[in-house]
From TrEMBL:
Residues 33-281 form the Orn/DAP/Arg decarboxylase 2 N-terminal domain. It comes from Jeotgalibaca porci. This is Diaminopimelate decarboxylase. Its EC number is 4.1.1.20. Transmembrane segments: none annotated. GO terms for biological process: lysine biosynthetic process via diaminopimelate. Pathway: Amino-acid biosynthesis; L-lysine biosynthesis via DAP pathway; L-lysine from DL-2,6-diaminopimelate: step 1/1. Its cofactor is pyridoxal 5'-phosphate. Homodimer. It catalyses: meso-2,6-diaminopimelate + H(+) = L-lysine + CO2. GO terms for molecular function: diaminopimelate decarboxylase activity; pyridoxal phosphate binding. The gene is lysA. Residues 22-371 form the Orn/DAP/Arg decarboxylase 2 C-terminal domain. Substrate binds at residues 277, 313, 317, 345, 373. NCBIfam families: lysA.
Length: 422
């Protein structure tokens, strides 16, 4: 019976040691992705910088690895900032995003020495200008622009998303107000412009269309500015997804930009990208224990000991995943089944209509490509504990995040007066 091996360790050994459900990352895959980005997103014509969009999977261990490869990090909350500050990531490489940063979050950024802010709207910039003056801190500001392009997995729409909650339109009155605030401020400097048109993008046409628009805007400035192009590169969840390898994708983007810069004469300070999903998704696998089975008139269910609490994406986005019975990889996949979780919701289905072999209670199910927006979007719904996260490499595994305990689940619960006296 052939077994799934991740990073040189058998799935059954991992589940025996750490329990289930378990988020497992193949560290070598993470490193190969980091290597591909850092090697191929490079140019002789312009400076490049890669930020990891840490919302995809943010833990201290992951950020330590990111820092090792010299990337910066994009954070979107005080929680993400706090985690980054506790990792080995240098504070100068932290870029603070978000459309509604609270005053406390802006203060925290200023107090902890964050230098780069990606600003979403006029009110934010106004408040930031006041706070920067109060703290006498100089900040580099990128303005998030809405270029009127929204990318979906296999299509993109131009000029239909002017009402997006993110960013402002170049040349609009909000934009002019932002430029005026920056001109007046002794502490804020315009570093450049940011755009992010969507996630899980396969058709790069949308991305290139956004580049063209951004270059058009930059052309109106005499000084070279930073062009931050965001993330969004697609990954493989099932055979239906055919992403371009990172290497080719980056090489093509760099060539496109080099040609465009030559053609237009636009001068650039730095070009930045912010990959999240494409760095981590395919390196992650979730291991579950299979419990009971049930046949209904039209379906056969395999139940697993996790579900929407550790992976909300199928119920939230109808996202598809592929899977295997990890301790029995060679058996014939003769059963058409639905893999459902243990949560008290009908929508708690991880995978619809997938062929798997017959199973018994205690078998291990591996769901692939769960490394992005899985742990990151996990919840304690039904008071299920968040699984542990382990990194595996060269036959060695190490815990990156410990499994929550039952005591963790009630840690912040306040006992009633009656209980206190009991
Ligand atoms: N930069 C900005 C400003 C972003 O908003 C995002 C993602 C990224 C970079 C990284 O995008 P990526 O390379 O990961 O596609 N929860 C959803 C995805 C939400 C993405 C939000 N922004 C999901 O699970 O599909």
């Amino acid at each position: 019976m052939k077994e799934l091996v991740i990073g040189g360790v058998k799935a059954s050994e991992l589940t025996a040691q750490y329990g289930t459900p378990l988020y497992v990352y193949d560290q070598q895959k993470l490193e190969a992705n980091l290597e591909a980005y850092t090697t191929y997103f490079k140019s002789d014509v312009f400076q490049t910088r890669i930020l990891y969009a840490s919302k995809a999977f943010q833990t201290i261990g992951m950020l330590d690895l990111i820092a090792e490869y010299g990337l910066g990090v994009d954070v979107v909350s005080s929680g993400e900032l706090y985690t980054a500050l506790k990792s080995t990531m240098p504070v100068e490489k932290i870029y603070f995003h978000g459309n509604n940063k609270t005053t406390e979050e802006l203060r925290m950024a200023l107090e902890t020495g964050v230098k780069h802010m990606v600003v979403d709207n006029v009110m934010e910039l106004e408040e930031l200008a006041g706070l920067a003056a109060e703290y006498k801190e100089k900040l580099q500001v990128q303005i998030r622009l809405n270029v009127g392009i929204e990318a979906h997995t296999h299509e993109y729409i131009v000029t239909t998303h002017i009402d997006s909650k993110f960013g402002i339109a170049f040349g609009s009155s909000d934009y002019e107000a932002c430029i005026a605030i920056l001109k007046k401020s002794d502490y804020l400097a315009l570093e450049g412009f940011h755009v992010h048109i969507g996630s899980q993008i396969f058709e790069m046409d949308a991305w290139y269309a956004a580049i063209d628009k951004m270059l058009g805007y930059l052309q109106t400035f005499s000084e070279p500015l930073t062009l931050n192009l965001g993330g969004g590169f697609g990954v493989r969840y099932t055979d239906a997804d055919q992403p371009m390898p990172i290497k080719e994708n980056m090489a093509q983007i760099v060539t496109y930009l080099e040609d465009k810069l030559q053609e237009t004469g636009v001068k650039i300070r730095e070009v930045m990208i912010e990959p999240g999903r494409s760095l981590v998704a395919e390196a992650g696998t979730t291991l579950y224990e299979i419990g009971y089975q049930k046949k209904t008139p039209n379906k056969q269910y395999y139940f697993v000991d996790g579900g929407m609490g550790d992976n909300i994406r199928p119920s939230l986005y109808q996202a598809d995943y592929s899977c295997d019975v990890a301790n029995n990889m060679t058996a014939e996949k003769s059963e058409l089944v639905t893999v459902a979780g243990k949560y008290c919701e009908s929508g708690d289905v991880l995978i619809h209509d997938v062929y798997l072999p017959p199973v018994k209670k205690g078998d291990i199910l591996a769901v692939y490509s769960t490394g992005a927006y899985g742990y990151a979007m996990s919840s304690n719904y039904n008071r299920n504990a968040t699984p542990a996260v382990v990194f595996v490499k060269d036959g060695e595994s190490r815990v990156i995040v410990k499994r929550q305990t039952l005591a963790d689940l009630i840690r912040n619960d306040v006992k009633t007066e009656a209980d206190k006296h009991a």
